[in-house]
Design goal:
Number of strands: 19
Helix content: 25-40%
Distance between the termini: 53 Å
Strand content: 15-25%
Number of helices: 12
Structural class: alpha/beta
Bound molecules: zinc ion
Largest sheet: 9 strands, mixed
Radius of gyration: 24 Å
Amino acid sequence: MRFLRYYLVWLLLGGLLASSLLAADQSLWKAGTARAVITPTEPLWMAGYASRTNPADGKVMELWIKVLALEDSRGHRAIVLTGDLLGFPQSIYQHICAALKEKFALAPDQILLSATHTHCGPVLRGALLDIYPLDQNQVALIDKYSTELETKIVATVGKALADLAPARVAAGQGAAGFAVNRRNNPEPDVPKLINQGALKGPVDHTVPVLAVYLPDGKLKAVLFGYACHNTVMDFYKWSGDYAGFAQLALEKSHPDATAMFFMGCGADQNPQPRRKLELAERFGNMLAAAVEEALLSTPHTLAPELRTTIEMVTLHLGPPPTESDLERLATDKILFVRRWALRLLADLKAGKPSISTYPLPLQAWQFGGQQLLITLGGEPVVDWSLKFKEEFGPQTWVAGYCNDVMNYIPTLRVLKADVPPGDQGHGGYEGAQATIVYGMPAFHWAEDVEELVNAGARRAVAAVQAQAK
Ligand SMILES: [Zn+2]
């Protein structure tokens, strides 16, 4: 009889334990990770600088794609993919979205492709047409590599989804100070200005950190960002640059974890000083230390609730160049301006239709009913992250270089300060010349760019907040 009573008590306790474990399980996220090397094995042209004269001739580290898949307690899923690439061009983004929809039923609001903007990665199909001197052989190699990359991305997302298992997700923040506003501080003067504490212009030195832990407390993944061009190096070796070194450092100190970097709004920010490999490693270590500091400061646990939304914001291009503009610029002193003008002249003469608008992908994700992540396509200047944090609150992270990198995204302040080549006055890259670098049929975005992006962000944030109610 006594035995039976004990037995019943044990049964009851066992039942309670099992149900509390189940409840604990239901209160967790699921997370999965996967990765693949994407270092080109053939001598491909390198992305980002117009001045390169030959393809890559070696590597200092592998280039990677890494995927973090997340699933909340309702079964809502999303994937973050980071890649050591300059940016995903529109056609590659569209191919990947179509494949992920077909294979895994993921919609574009659930897909975040983030490029680290290393300028020591390969040129991709359909990107920055006019700035590289590519022959037919290079074009074919780039095309083949891009197709293989698309296949690899879809397969790696599949592996991350297959790896989904209970996890805890937390948010933290650190800081690192090596980003310098490149519009306000001429590069040769920067060492002197640093010594004098006289650097000028807006910066965002925060390091957002999303930490994913296994139920036993081990770090499974860490996604971290920084708003600064990933351009310490301009040489001929494949490299993830400072962001690559930061990931290597974190994966050394957390051997079971996948470390992933996303670019913030760093379009007008450069790492300074630069052009020495030891500086790329040094900045990588500074960033890794900021992430470690955030991890040690007990990141805030996020409830397993994920809301995702996407807006395709229709941006307007400024007035197209006239035939006489193009004829004038066809003899410009800058080679890629000549190539751009000649290509547009040929299109004009052939009666080829031109675009006057462009769909900018803008996402708002909300983790645990509180942590907001806003993503922008293109290369957004730092104003965007400062503005959005002010408007949407301190628990806002802003990522740039996401999904489709088609041009810089200036605010009106930057747009109005810059003038196209050939005009009176001094140029200015982010607001004007970059539009030509990206091969767009205009000198810059129209002046409603800031208004349209703001309105898109407000719609996206309102949409995730409404879902959360
Ligand atoms: Zn850039």
